[in-house]
Amino acid sequence: MSAPQPPSSAPGPGPGQIPVPQPVPRTALVTGAGRGIGRGIALGLARAGYAVALVGRTRAHLDAVAAQVAELGATAVVATADLVDAAAVRSAVARVEAAFAGLGGIGLLVNNAGVIERAETDFVADDVEDMWRVVETNVRGPMLVTHAVLPGMLARGGGRVLDLNSGAGHRAMGTYTGYGISKGALARLTTAIDAQYRDRGIRTLDLAPGVVATDMTAGMPVHDDRTAWTSVEDVAELVRAFGDGELDAWSGRFVRAGADTVDSLLAVTDEVLATDARRLRLSTFGAHDPAV
């Protein structure tokens, strides 16, 4: 582990942004950080100077990433936990908070860990227990981790929570029913945390990573013939920008790596705020719709 760095303030907010009380530590807890997108995010944050806590189930994978983080000159903390086990999550978060105490605590939470069904099929043909495994991992996990991290952020007056989401969270799919349900529920969690704690300095974001080449996507027949992939570095850059406060105005909204960039999002911020776009909501037939 390299020598801890003191917390630094995030860059000031741009036009239309609501500032988060400063300083928000440049520290991050990344779940599912041992492989795939989580590993890429952790390394990207380390390159940007973040101290990174790597949380997941497999110690060997986390230790390997921690060694890479250390090689980049950044602080690495490892905590193992089954993310659907409430006691294990509380213990892991407590260990990370203690390790980051001299840096100001956890400033950014990245809920990255997630799974998908074993079979690419429709609802009736799928295994309900496997679908529930997906829902539990992808919803209960982020709920437990966020529930454990938020009190510290609130006590310090600010923090940022980023949930790795998917287009499946707002777009109906012909397969992977459990995955779609889980990402829709995760999007609602993002908006709920924004609504409840925005005025207390918490910012949230749903980030769809696009289609990154990982072990998970390699096992999905829908991607067998894919030749164009989203770069994990593009995902990590959006995470970094959110962690640094550049996307605070997008709190409670949805962005997609591979389609959105930091510059493109900043360019349309005023339009997005004026139309209240990129939120999970019910479409209505007009202002006189009684369901509004």
Question: What's the topology here?
Answer:
Layout: E1 27-31, H1 36-47, E2 51-56, H2 59-71, E3 76-80, H3 86-99, E4 108-111, H4 128-156, E5 159-164, H5 177-197, E6 202-208, H6 215-218, H7 232-243, E7 253-256, H8 262-267, H9 269-275
Parallel strand pairs: 1-2, 1-4, 2-3, 4-5, 5-6, 6-7
SS summary, helix count: 9
Read across the widest sheet, the strand sequence of neighbours is 3-2-1-4-5-6-7
Question: In which range does the helix fraction lie?
Answer: 40-55%
Q: Unreliable runs, pLDDT <50, ≥5 residues?
A: 1-16
Which percent band covers the strand fraction? 5-15%
Which descriptor suits the 3D outline? globular
Could you say what the CATH topology is called? Rossmann fold
Question: How big is the Rg?
Answer: 18 Å
CATH superfamily: NAD(P)-binding Rossmann-like Domain
Biased composition (Pro residues): 1-24
GO molecular function, one term: oxidoreductase activity
Region (Disordered): 1-25
Keywords: Oxidoreductase
What does this protein look like?
Pfam families: adh_short. This is Oxidoreductase. This protein has 292 residues and is an alpha/beta fold. The protein has helices at 36-47, 59-71, 86-99, 128-156, 177-197, 215-218, 232-243, 262-267, 269-275; strands spanning 27-31, 51-56, 76-80, 108-111, 159-164, 202-208, 253-256. The protein has a single domain (27-275), classed as NAD(P)-binding Rossmann-like Domain (Rossmann fold). Helices cover 40% and strands 13% of the residues. Helix 4 runs parallel beside helix 5.
